[in-house]
Write a structure and sequence with these properties.
Strand content: over 45%
Helix content: under 10%
Strand order of the largest sheet: 1-10-9-8-7
Number of domains: 1
Order of helices and strands: EEEEEEEEEEEEEEEEEEEEEEEEE
Number of helices: 0
Distance between the termini: 37 Å
Shape: globular
Largest sheet: 5 strands, antiparallel
Structural class: mainly beta
């Protein structure tokens, strides 16, 4: 592994990279500035409220200078990772552990982000080179990193990693080609494409190898569970878009869905949907869930951009 700078806090190095570098949205109107999650998640900047969920404890990760932030991965130690935008729309990775926030950058890159962490502390993420001609996935551990690129792809985005070292994410062969999901297992890539999907975005994997994420048809997104080779769409009844962010070893899935005009956050298990609410929020972006039921993600109020959060049962 090559030496990786240890958590510098001041380098403003990242403009958001090209579309597929760190994007789950194939339809952002600003091609060179697409966020990791849908562009609709970026709203007017505002201050976070003191949030609380019904019978839950919510910690908003307050980041000085941030206009938007997303907590994506969490391990069983409660260590969470994600990324945030500064006022120049640069992205930065972060680690949130024991109540301490640490911002992370890699100089001379674009679109740097952390998206997943396992119980060994191995982090996955992605960035583009400074010229924006290729987007790399990587594994990061104790100040060192190794590239993780799908063969022949210009963009690779690892999104989650389990304790066996299995990684899921997506890739593009060219900037104009479709987003295709992948599983990296014991050094070998396998393509993941949900039946009928135009794009497939695997976002979470547990130690049993069960995978969740979203797949897109021509009109909208759907949440899926891939278990023992079988794809199951798990959209809540009445929703017109859904996305599953993470799954723990008990099979509990954190997901968000749009019903009526606002999105809602759900904990899904065995066909049952348990709503999770933060009073006043009208937008939820699901992150992941650990063995203790701790959840990561982002929420927003009608007049704010998203704020990263960690929610405890």
């Amino acid at each position: 592994m090559l030496k990786f700078p240890r958590f510098p806090k001041s380098a403003a190095v990242a403009l958001l990279a090209l579309a597929s570098v760190t994007s789950l949205s194939a339809a952002s109107p600003v091609k060179a500035k697409r966020p990791i999650l849908p562009a609709a998640a970026l709203k007017h900047h505002g201050k976070p409220a003191s949030a609380s969920a019904h019978s839950k404890s919510v910690t908003t990760i307050n980041i000085p200078g941030s206009i938007a932030s997303y907590a994506i991965g969490i391990n069983n130690k409660g260590e969470s990772v994600g990324y945030w935008y500064d006022e120049q729309f640069n992205t930065h990775g972060f680690l949130f552990s024991g109540g301490k926030f640490t911002s992370v950058d890699l100089p001379h890159t674009l679109g740097f982000s952390f998206t997943g962490i396992n119980n060994q502390g191995i982090i996955v993420g992605s960035y583009a080179n400074e010229a924006g001609t290729i987007a790399h996935g990587f594994l990061f551990y104790r100040g060192h990193y190794a590239l993780l690129d799908y063969p022949g792809a210009w963009a690779t985005q690892p999104y989650a990693i389990n304790d066996q070292g299995d990684v899921v994410g997506n890739y593009q062969i060219t900037p104009e080609s479709p987003f295709i999901g992948f599983l990296w297992h014991k050094g070998t890539f396998t393509t993941i494409t949900a039946p009928g999907a135009v794009y497939t975005f695997p976002a979470g994997i547990n130690d049993k190898g069960e995978i969740v994420g979203g797949w897109y048809d021509q009109d909208t997104s759907h949440a899926f569970l891939l278990r023992k080779g079988v794809y199951t769409t798990i959209d809540p009844k009445g929703s017109f878009s859904a996305f599953a962010g993470g799954i723990n070893n008990s099979g509990k899935i954190i997901m968000a869905a749009t019903l009526d005009v606002a999105s809602e956050l759900f904990l899904y298990s065995d066909g049952k949907y348990q709503p999770i609410t933060i009073p006043g929020a009208d937008l939820y972006i699901p992150g992941s869930i650990n063995a203790r039921g701790e959840i990561t993600g982002a929420y927003a109020f009608p007049t704010t951009s998203p704020f990263a959060f960690v929610l405890k049962p």
